Model the fold of this input.
Amino acid sequence: MNKVAVLYDAGQAVLSTFDLDEVLQRILTIAHDYFHLRNVAILLLDKQTQQLCVRSQIGWDEGQDKIRLGLSDGLSGAAAAKKQPVYAPDVRKDPRYFCSAKSTRSELAIPLMVRDEVVGVLDCQSDRPDHFDNDTIDLLTLFSTQASMALQNARLYSLERERARQMEAINAIAKQTTAVLDLEDLLGRVCTVIQQAFKISHVSLFLREDHDLVLRAHHGTLTPRLPQGGRFPATAEPWARILTANTTLTEKDFADIPDAAKFFVESASRLCIPLVSFGQILGVLALDSVHAGAFREDELQSLESVADICATAIQNAHYVERVKQLAYLDGLTGIFNRRFFELRIMEEIERARRYGTGMAVIMVDIDQFKRLNDEFGHLLGDEVLRQVSSLFHQQLRKIDVVCRYGGEEFGILLTQANATHGMNIAEKLRALVETWQFPGVPRRVTISAGTAAFPEHGTTRDELVRAADTGLYAAKQAGRNRVCLASLSRGSSAGS
Done:
């Protein structure tokens, strides 16, 4: 978790001051020391001339820090123009390279962005060819978002010192959210600290999942009309206007709109801000007030800065989740392992119990897999496991989970599903495998499956898995290559 510690330490350092020169120096020092860079510089964008100007640097050759680059000049100009990192593993082979230090052999330029607007470039150089691997580029990219927020906060503070209370609130939120790396804890913390710091009636966080926005957390004093975990099509209003234009939406007066369009019973006005991190819209921060016209124009910039800080913290938490997930992946098939199955089934049962949405478990076994291994060898057997895993993964929704339960057995968790849906999915997978041509296997490969659903077949982990295993055993006993629904009687034993 050293990489996570780097992000935490770096975020705390650059977000703990508003003085522009100090922010710039901290950014350069962290980039130079943590990532072992020979040369590093920050170039800020002059909006009037559309040129990049060196604002601060370490290690550049004398006189080179006076240059001004257009948006098509050098790797820094290319990164600003494309709004994405640009990397030259060997600068001698890259025609875009502009020499700022003769010692440079590889260069990475990362745009510094506030929302979807470039404000500058973090230029990183090494005296070794191909110095930057994918992990380092990812970490520097995430760090650059923190640096962008720090630069923006410093500019706001220097331009609007009379708004000191709000800026101090932004800083406090940045410190608190940067220190939380668990996504669920972070989302709850974000809503709480924003609501308290800005005295807003209610704060809600909606995150994008597939083509929907999902209410992941909220905090305040109003009465909700929508359930926690509720899903809303991203094409519906007000989301479509916010996401399509990537812009803040202020709804000043709810007097004439239907109650169904309000998130909270007492809400009289609302401000919705897209959560943007490095050009990607992660979701929407929604602020509701009991007062009409509650959100003034002169408050928007501060609130948008808070949203940007929160988006960066959410992106960091996503990165930590990806690191943690590596411990839950099966090394052979690349899908989740049994450890992850045991973790998620408890979460899905609790979610189904709390919201009454239901869930289903499918236990799947490849028929006569030992015979297949004996006939064609373990290498071919391993390839069959990989292909079956891939077929399952491709056919399921992103919200569903497929795991290698052990050997040739798989466990599948279907969110917001009933027994009929579980049986239909299991049958779809069975038919697909039966007709699939597995290279090197001259005969059919088939699967058997058992399905159980919450709550009719069980309300605990053991009851549901035992019930699904019972269905799987029945399918095997009935001749294999079939799907069976678990018996409604709980607690029965099943064969392997």
Observations:
- The longest strand covers residues 117-126.
- The two ends are 39 Å apart (CA to CA).
